[in-house]
Amino acid sequence: MTSTHKEPRGWKDLPLGAVSYRLSTDYKTGDWRALRPVVDLNKCVKCMLCWIFCPDMAIVWDGEKIVINYDYCKGCGICAHECPVNAITMVPEPTE
Amino acid sequence: MMLVRYMLEIRWHGRGGQGAWTAANLLAMAAAYDGKHVQSFPAFGPERSGAPILAFTRISDEPIDLHSMVYEPDIVIVLDPTLLKNVNVVSGLKKNGLIIVNYEGDTDKLYNMLGIKKDEYKVVVTPATKLALDILKRPITNTPMIGALIKAAPIVSFESIEKAVKKRFPGSIAEKNIALIKEAYKLAKEV
Amino acid sequence: MTEAVKTPIIPLEEQELLTVNGDEAVAYAAKQSLVDVVAAYPITPQTIIVEKFSEFVANGEVHTEFVPVESEHSAMSAVVGAAAAGARAFTATAANGLALMWEILYIAASLRLPIVLAVANRALSAPINIHCDHSDAYGMRDSGWIQLFVENVQEAYDTVIQAFKIAEDERVLLPVAVNLDGFFLSHTLENIRILPDEKVHEFLGGYRKVPKVKVDYFDEEVPLMLNPARPLTFGPLDLYDYYFEHKMHQVEAMKRVPEVVQEVNEKWYELTGRKYGDGILVPYEVEDADVIVTVLGSTAGTVRHIVKKLRREGKKVGMIRIKMFRPFPHREIAELLKNAKVVGVMDRGISFGSYGQSFLEINTSLYDYRKKPLLVNYIYGLGGRDAPPELIEKMFEELLRDAEKGVVENKLRFLGVRE
Amino acid sequence: MPAQTLPQIPIKKGEPAYKLWIFEPGWKGELPLILNPRQLAEQKRSALLPGHRLCAGCAAPIIVKLASFAFRGPTIVVNATGCLEVATTIFPYTSWAVPWIHNAFENAAATASGVESAIKALKKTGRLPWDHVDVVVFAGDGGTFDIGLQSLSGAAERGHDFLYILYDNEAYMNTGIQRSSGTPKYAWTTTSPVGTVLPGKTQNKKPIADIMVAHRIPYVATATPAHWLDLIKKVRKGIEVNGPAFIHSLSSCDRGWRHDTSLTIEVSRRAVDTCYFPLWEWTPKTGYLLTDRSLAIARNPKLKQPIEKFLEIQGRFRHLLKPENRHLLRELQEYVDSVWEDLLNRAANAPR
User: Fold this and answer.
1) D264 contacts chain A (CB < 8 A)
2) Where is the Pyruvate/ketoisovalerate oxidoreductase catalytic domain (chain B) (predicted)?
3) A28 in contact with D at a CB cutoff of 8 Å?
4) Topology of the domain covering D37-346
5) How would you classify the pairing of strands C146-149 and B37-42?
6) Cβ D151–C74 below 8 Å, yes or no?
7) Minimal Cα–Cα distance from D83 to chain C, Å?
8) Would you state the pLDDT for residue B1?
9) Which of C276, C290, D54, D268 could crosslink D58 through cysteines, CB 3.0-4.6 Å?
10) pLDDT value at position B43?
11) Which residue ranges of chain D lie beneath pLDDT 70?
């Protein structure tokens, strides 16, 4: 949901009891990345180990193939290291 | 029933484990049944069984404001005659005050131990240890002292004492204690 | 002191007479308050509360889950967990136990959990002492809890029930500590009147009702609790960008406490015929008094006893019992004190290197007044040192002399200590 | 992302991958335990959402994610202070799709006691709209081995029904890599530095899981995220038993262990292969049982790797590989061997 509040909010606009009011899915950690995992779908055997081990829940199964969500991927490289068929390679993040 | 003054203050002397605080509580409960305002509390310490201890009861027609210990009691009750050797039980006792002692034996010796003169105070004795051993088979001398107290000064009704004892103790123990109170009442005498 | 009784909704004959000590009275009140979770650890002089409550649990008289924790730290931690999960939660402690809870006291208040804590006030170590003073309660004064002090066993019972009502009020949502003097109340048997269970339930509105909160990821307001139907995150990391704002919530909530306490006091009066001043301060004979003494807890009775005596002797003395220490009723107390010549502030605790804790508050209260009394701080009763009527009378005599002289030479005095 | 979501399992095609876990009042049933990776990906969502700010390559979120695949229904999570707590709930954000509470550092188990007791009391009085609500604790080694041990032991003794998952990164990583009683011998930390006199920490790791076994609670196990299937199965067992359950999961920290971020799973795997961190479970009925790779090693000792295999990819042990420290390495190997032998003697399913 998009918020009508200005950020950061004043105390009158904060919820009671200091509970969090936004989900971290609104916070993109993708820009932490120096190396970017790239999947070679021709090599992928859909074993799902990358999905199992990704610490950032940045690998998504779309029903047919794995997709890397670069919004969240921090580029740790676990997926590439654990891929049994070397279908994932870590490439430098484009500097543009 | 005798009218109590504005406030009656009672000090109990016993040894840890003899039930002085329980007796103070029973008396307070009984007085509360009679419609009085009451307070009962021990002189609090970490004492274990055997050590000399104090407990207090306050009884009043008015709500009780005071929340301090009792320094000038109207009545002193001594659960264990062996305390007389080491504890000055008459300390602070008001003029014409009442002393009730678990005691059987020579009156002069008692006065001597109390360190008081004849006619200075009213002294009432009852053989509580003997009675407790007969009836409870244990030397718990707290309840018989209540029997002696209400004979010497009928400050609470016997019915209320009975009610309090029954509330505090389960069935047969309550009955034995009531019997004990009655016996102590009978044998209590001014000396 | 209980004031003149008007006809209560629950007639006196329907209020059962009990002769119980302060701890038992607290346990009874908690029992009748439909408490869901009690987590507690034994410490003298609070232990009877836990023992008594365990009996209720053992006899199936309550639905409460009793958690016999391994420390006071865990007691406070467990009631925080329970209250966050939607339960009405209660605990009790004293002295070092309260000190051990200290870290979690702040958390309970910041998470806005309406926990009720009974403190059987006791001196802090060292040397170890089991008797009454208020250093334990003063130690938690900045933690965000509401602090109420009672004078007698009846008030302990009444105040514990009221504490749930105050804590859970949506204007408040703060934890409440009910302080009763160790031994002088905790272990002292007095006769009290208790309400029928269902009347207490009615007064509290049944089981605890959880307030609602709005977060961005739900369209509607959702219950402020750990709820699998509407997940919330309690106790997040809060850095310099938000922490200050969250503290403002607590500041504002505290501002709303006095009106709620007064309302609850008034409601209780209508129900039972008993009230304690306005629920915040309990003044006695202050209107024309030259000398006023302020005091917390059970010593207030002894002070009142002496005020009565001195009034009979024609001396213009009065007293105020401070029932609510946090939030502190600065304006209210200043209004009552401003016309006196001398005020003696009694503290059963001291902030070493400073004054007694309520003295600091009262100084602050009066600062802005052009006409104000001279102030004297009496530190008394540390470690359970008794404050008998003679000592209180001696204090009044000193204060009357000060009033006559119009000057106070020694602002910090120690009452009842051997030289 | 939609604000309000209902649990839809299996996930429909085209649905968002990240959702809150919502169990409407009256929800009945039990989420199935799925062990096939493809089916997992199709039917499970992590209780931990992306956007959390744990370090790249941290093992803790992997453990939480895997554990949440084993949740059976409405679940409340309690978190001790630590990296996981801090980095997943930076206000105003939360990464938790389930109800979650952080109280303090040393009291996660006590907090869970309170939550669990509240659930019981609500249920008893007809105010709990589900058959059961599970309580799962996540806490690090500092909050478990050290400051939280009292509260954990107390809660275990009282028998509260909760699962306590220890993610053990073997030091106080949240405050910057200080030694804990979970730090292994000779590891470098900032408070057990390698100096001219001292070769890192000079004490052995506290046997925390055995301490929990000694409480004779219904279920105790060890796990690592590398052995993910084993971990998921153990979490479900821990949730299903009545009473306290404890899972000790190794949780590598690339910052503190000084390894490449991509080696998080590799290093966990090597911890088991070298028998530095054997996998086992314990129940009062079965006693110790080896599981997964550790059972394979017990059956075929040739699979057991030397301790260097575990140490060589971690900078915190770099000094041990120097020639002058060979005796320390030998000592460490002997220690690992003796603990492993001890476990083989205790494990009912180890070949004799």
Assistant:
1) yes
2) 16-185
3) yes
4) Rossmann fold (3.40.50)
5) unpaired
6) yes
7) 11
8) 37
9) D54
10) 86
11) 1-11
